């Protein structure tokens, strides 16, 4: 069947139609993004101006819904790149009452957003608080690490923080449950020298607990590691009911990974390898596994030979 060809006039009409369609779409899009819309976002709460002599418990979630009036373009960007915002809530009025009304703080909250975004309301509009006795204590600082080391390098000593302890102040029941606080994680790749940095104390949503200071200087000693082979005598646990017990062999060879600068520091006295005869008495095993019950800090066991030993028991 012969195909129908489009002549020059028809091609021109189609081109004009497509052009008009594109212009109409662009005009509609410009109107749409320039109009104002109301958009609701979730926001976390950060408390400021906390009364010094009053400890409090929020009686609701630490996340609120914020209704914002913004342009269509901002709505589009918010949908394409959703992000949980944080808003600050002024608690200075808690010195005389146990609730906060957001409608009284709309001006303060709007100053936390760009001028092209207007906060209309926050839900729930009222936050309630329960007050309790305030207490204070010191807790140690810990440093979580996510570090990839250069080959043959690793941590060779305890991580040090300055200060070692921070002071926390807040409701008795909350403060009593905090055994330690962590800093933000320390990251690194191909690390082969000591790490020295300043890291913020991670609050972990503890909005009603005051922490001082809010940061710590962190030092992580990094050094070169090397293998060291140590022969360790085997100790027998729970042998009291027998006349004599002998293991074959009487020593194990342990391959360790130690700091190069501490190579001569560690000896067999710093390790302990045992076998437990209760394992034979209860399970009648033919050989006993070696258990390492004492290993110095920052020393890594690579290999134990043999991992199981034969034994002779005289009752």
From TrEMBL:
It comes from Sphingobacterium tabacisoli. The lineage of its organism: Bacteria, Pseudomonadati, Bacteroidota, Sphingobacteriia, Sphingobacteriales. This is YbbR-like domain-containing protein.
